[in-house]
Amino acid sequence: MFKRLLKWLFAIIAVLLLAAAVFAVNAIWFRPWSLNVFYEKVFIEFMLDEPEVLSSLGLVEQFGITGHNAKLSDASPAHQQLQIERTKKSLAQLRQYPLERQSESQRLSTRVLEWFLERGAEAEQFQWHNYPVNQLFGVQNQLPSFLANTHRLRAERDCEYYLQRLEAVPAKFDQVLEGLVLREQKQITPPRFVVEKVLKEMTDFVAQPAAENILATSFKGRAEKIEKLTDQQRAEFQARVEAAINAHVYPAYQKLINYFTGLLPKTTTDDGVWKLPNGEAFYAHMLRQNTTLPLQSGEIHALGVSEVERIEAEMRTILDANGYTGQPTREVIAALRDDPRFLFANDDTGRAAAIAEYTRLIDDAMERSKQLFATLPRAAVEVRRVPEFKEATAPGAYYEGPAMDGTRPGVFYANLRDMAPIAKWGMPTLSYHEGVPGHHFQIATARELKGLPQFRKLIPFTAYSEGWALYAEWLAKDAGWYEADPFGDLGRLQAELFRAVRLVVDTGIHAQRWPREQAIAYMREKTGMDEKDVISEIERYIVSPGQACAYKVGMLKIRELRACAEQQLGAKFDLREFHTAVLKNGALPLEILEQQINDYIEEKKG
Length: 606
Prior knowledge:
By secondary structure, the protein is mostly helical. The chain is built from 24 helices and 3 strands. The longest helix is centred in the middle third of the chain and has 33 residues, at 231-263. 40% of the residues are buried.
């Protein structure tokens, strides 16, 4: 009897194993039977091929999967083409699932994924129209930042992984060089100022003794916190890290330096992408991808000019009410930037005070947000200084989302290279944008959503995420947070004016063929910003065409949707519910968000 039961048990196990094997083969090599499995397949295929992204997310370490932390992402042209082919295949497979058989949640996921994959497939013709080594987010400055801030160091194994990644830098940079040569053959080269700036950045990077390089200093500081390492082990690892920097990292950088030194004489001062092969079509594609709306460059340019005029009028009203009647707005803004009342000391004491003030503002906003939101994200948010090695070319501030396993908080990075441009009256708006209730609320909330495919928590749509952050700035005004702070409100308007100006200069550079100097002069005239900050911004738009247009377009669309909900719902309108409706599905293309809010309005009416 026992033998018979055992025989049946083995038979059942064999059948289950066979079923699992068939399921796995179907899921991996073919279109899965289950749409939900297909969603995860698309996500997993991408993640497994991008170890740096996987490390940043902290998604699988909790399951004991750590091998990816020893690898760098493939930057070769062959890998790029592989990703494009996979995108087209995934799009074709997605369209084979009948919409009428899908649940409401699945139909939304399918629409979002289809939109994303369509843009990826369309991008094949423009896959070389970018500058992978640039002053803002090039591989030469992103990789050290990733290793110093994102790579996990919690155990001896992580230290070994760190070393393996340092040793892999030459192979990655060779892949980058292969792509740069291919672009040069296609007459796609960065403007002269980009080459000049990255050459200086890389030359300064390799000029440091290895022990003083951020790759060594950051490792040392974090390794000291690994309790299970002995002092001898720490010293041995530190020596190996410094040796790897000299033997592998610096020679890889030198190769890039040599290439760009030879490229410099071939560059021009033409900055817009109109100069590239099929450049006008490429810019139209970038506007579609970044704004997630079918807008033409001329429409966006005119919108920017109109918004600049409106915001200037609102700023004039505040200035007139606070003793600056008749004085030109630009001159007043410049004077306020130099006013000692609003400045920090330009030293480490001043930097610490600025970090403390940003933290206070975010803590206060978190408390006030309880009146505006039904739920708050669980992840914490911290304020940190932008790493010093990249301060010179980094933007004034940026946000980095929390790890999905809860091991790393969301981080608002403030650029403190020079304290002179950091006026206290501009700090509230920046805190609300990068932190609470801006990027942190949107990104952390998305990553904490339950019951959705992983891609819905992570997929990037700039117009939605940046539009939300700008809406958060305006929401603070709407909620009365500036009632006793007219200069803070002026800072809000100045920040909004800055985003409206972006619409004008981005389209001016890339569609209307403005030279860099014209864009710089326009932004300086309209914003009163410091020249070096304006130059940094304009140069950012040059290497990232269309991205600067997403912010204001997204903000205006969210405000438009809120106004529509208020008008149609009347007394039934609930601001907390509206915010939930905007945030509950993760990032969406704006045209899909509009449909979701329309559905919310109709449901609320019923």
